[in-house]
TrEMBL record:
<dbReference type="GO" id="GO:0007219">
    <property type="term" value="P:Notch signaling pathway"/>
</dbReference>
<keyword id="KW-0914">Notch signaling pathway</keyword>
<dbReference type="GO" id="GO:0005829">
    <property type="term" value="C:cytosol"/>
</dbReference>
<comment type="similarity">
    <text>Belongs to the gamma-glutamylcyclotransferase family. ChaC subfamily.</text>
</comment>
<keyword id="KW-0963">Cytoplasm</keyword>
<dbReference type="Pfam" id="PF04752">
    <property type="entry name" value="ChaC"/>
</dbReference>
<keyword id="KW-0456">Lyase</keyword>
<dbReference type="GO" id="GO:0016740">
    <property type="term" value="F:transferase activity"/>
</dbReference>
<dbReference type="GO" id="GO:0006751">
    <property type="term" value="P:glutathione catabolic process"/>
</dbReference>
<keyword id="KW-0834">Unfolded protein response</keyword>
<keyword id="KW-0808">Transferase</keyword>
<keyword id="KW-0053">Apoptosis</keyword>
<keyword id="KW-0524">Neurogenesis</keyword>
<dbReference type="GO" id="GO:0061928">
    <property type="term" value="F:glutathione specific gamma-glutamylcyclotransferase activity"/>
</dbReference>
<dbReference type="GO" id="GO:0007399">
    <property type="term" value="P:nervous system development"/>
</dbReference>
<dbReference type="GO" id="GO:0006915">
    <property type="term" value="P:apoptotic process"/>
</dbReference>
<dbReference type="GO" id="GO:0005794">
    <property type="term" value="C:Golgi apparatus"/>
</dbReference>
């Protein structure tokens, strides 16, 4: 069984696997439209994490993990708790295209996708509003800023040929907001 990750699974799968491949799926865009009140946020200040939006002309880059034997039941049990129960995601089968030049046919992979019917679904917002929400959110897995920056780093280092305008626009908005949080007028006058 192959499992495709496009959010925190790219750097922290949390389950044992046999192999992993970087690549993409077609027909979906990654969006920070899913609320998170556990891993990267709280009930009072939900974080923002990614889900997939059907988009026929797009592709989303991530990592596919191959699980075999005893790994299958253990990984699916873990992911059903992490993604379905706590995250509110549904599962689908998608065609995963490995990045490798000599890759054979696409691989069928399981993917978790949040839908608008999900109670934690937040939907669209401006990049600035999403960045502002990410800055103030933290959960049991860490700060929401870490989630955004790790995902942007993954795209930069493992998929440099790919473009993810939504992700990088939010990162840019976050970086432009951060100095405002650390400097007061007095500290600016001292420099």
């Amino acid at each position: 069984v192959w499992i495709f990750g496009y959010g925190s699974l790219v750097w922290r799968p949390g389950f044992e696997f046999t192999s992993r491949k970087v690549g993409f799926i077609r027909g979906y865009s990654r969006r920070f439209w899913q609320g998170d009140t556990f891993h990267r946020g709280s009930e009072k200040m939900p974080g923002r994490v990614v889900t997939l939006l059907e988009d026929c002309g797009a592709c989303t880059w991530g990592v596919a993990y191959e699980v075999r034997g005893d790994q299958i039941a253990a990984s699916l049990e873990y992911l059903n708790m992490r993604e379905a129960v706590l995250g509110g995601y549904d599962t689908k089968l998608v065609k995963f295209h490995p990045q490798e030049k000599d890759a054979e046919e696409p691989i069928l992979a399981l993917v978790y996708i949040a839908t608008p019917q999900n109670p934690s679904y937040l939907g669209p917002a401006s990049e600035e509003d999403i960045a502002a929400q990410i800055i103030v959110s933290s959960g049991c897995a860490g700060h929401n800023i870490e989630y955004l920056l790790r995902l942007a780093d993954f795209m930069r280092y493992f998929c440099p040929q790919a473009e993810d305008k939504h992700l990088f626009s939010i990162e840019e908005a976050l970086i432009s907001i951060l100095p405002c949080l650390y400097y007061t007028e007095e500290s600016l006058e001292e420099t």
